[in-house]
Design goal:
The protein is of the alpha+beta class. The protein is built from 11 helices and 11 strands. About 40% of the residues lie in helices and about 20% in strands.
Length: about 325
């Protein structure tokens, strides 16, 4: 019976991505049973690929340190996907400019000239409709150390610089790493402060893994926690609205990172499919952009606070009314 070469190579790719891979994880990724995974590992060992077996609670398989990849071989589609991914990652803050450029250069050096010219033509003709955001990529050593601690439930000590410049050293139980709007965050139980916190990775200057392990809380959603934290951060104005619509409808104009939406129960006499109001809370530095966003929702709303926002909404309505009544100039 011929060896399943494609799956053996897929196993090698998984191991080359680094770290220890459990037999269960590899079986799930390859869609085979655990016995077959062990057989595939044997095939790699027969080919002089140094696969190590790691015992213990977090055991599994890994490649021996220092193992070098064979010559890179990519299809046209794979090469295009990798280079476009590097461009998109740089714009989104998922990688630094230097790392993206050097990685792209290494890939180009091993590609056939025919394919390299075609990819250069794609990248040279590519335009984006949105401007690059204020992306801040974290240090790779910080990101890798924290991600490893998240995966293995290990406590860490970090050196952190707050927005106001204050520096501190904190002990964390890290729960998850989240990328949002060009920045990276880690959600964690901050043992130093005795509360759950969110920290920006670009403000972390050092990470040290501590002995021991911890059990993360059940049902934790790191991405939701980051969005909630951003939406409830202290700002100059606290805004409370009632908007007729569901959370999904309201979030089309007021994203979860800006607004906290609580769907309110419908009156017992109302049709719940047609009458659904939500309470919306925002904390913002400026109010002048809100009236236009509320108008774009095209849904009934009530301003509960602040009174200043009511005046801005009325002023926008008056300007729109005046514009609608203007006649075109006579030529």
């Amino acid at each position: 019976m011929p060896r399943p070469v494609a799956r053996v190579l897929a196993l090698l790719e998984l191991l080359q991505s680094g770290g220890i891979r459990t037999v269960t994880e590899l079986a799930d990724r390859l869609d085979v049973d655990e016995r077959t995974v062990r057989r595939y590992v044997g095939h790699l060992v027969d080919l002089d690929v140094p696969v190590e077996s790691v015992r213990g609670r977090y055991g599994g398989y890994r490649l021996a340190p220092g193992y070098r990849m064979p010559p890179l071989m990519l299809s046209d589609d794979e090469a295009l996907a990798v280079l476009l991914g590097l461009v998109a990652g740089r714009r989104a803050g998922l990688a630094t400019d230097t790392a993206s450029e050097t990685a792209a250069a290494k890939i180009r050096r091993v590609l056939p000239e025919r394919l390299s010219r075609r990819l250069d033509a794609v990248l040279g003709s590519l335009a984006f409709t949105d401007r690059p955001g204020e992306a801040v990529a974290p240090e790779s050593t910080v990101l890798l150390a924290i991600a490893d601690a998240v995966n293995h439930h290990r406590p860490i000590s970090i050196r952190y610089t707050a927005a106001d410049g204050r520096r501190s050293e904190r002990t964390l139980h890290p729960h998850g790493v989240v990328a949002h709007s060009g920045r990276w965050y880690v959600t964690a139980a901050d043992l130093t402060a005795g509360e759950d916190r969110t920290f920006r990775l670009d403000r972390i200057t050092g990470v040290r893994t501590l002995p021991g392990s911890f059990e993360p809380p059940a049902g934790l959603d790191p991405a939701k926690r980051v969005l909630t934290g951003l939406a409830t951060a202290p700002y100059r104005h606290e805004v409370t609205l009632r908007i007729q619509g569901t959370a999904a409808q309201i979030h089309t104009r007021l994203p979860a990172g800006i607004a906290i939406v609580e769907e309110l129960p419908s009156p017992s006499s109302a049709d719940p499919q047609t009458v659904r109001w939500s309470r919306v809370g925002l904390r913002v530095e400026r109010l002048d952009w809100l009236p236009a966003v509320l108008a774009s929702l095209d849904r009934p709303f009530i301003v509960e606070r602040p009174d200043e926002l009511r005046g801005l909404v009325e002023a926008l309505a008056e300007r729109l009314t005046n514009s609608a009544r203007r006649s075109p100039p006579h030529e």
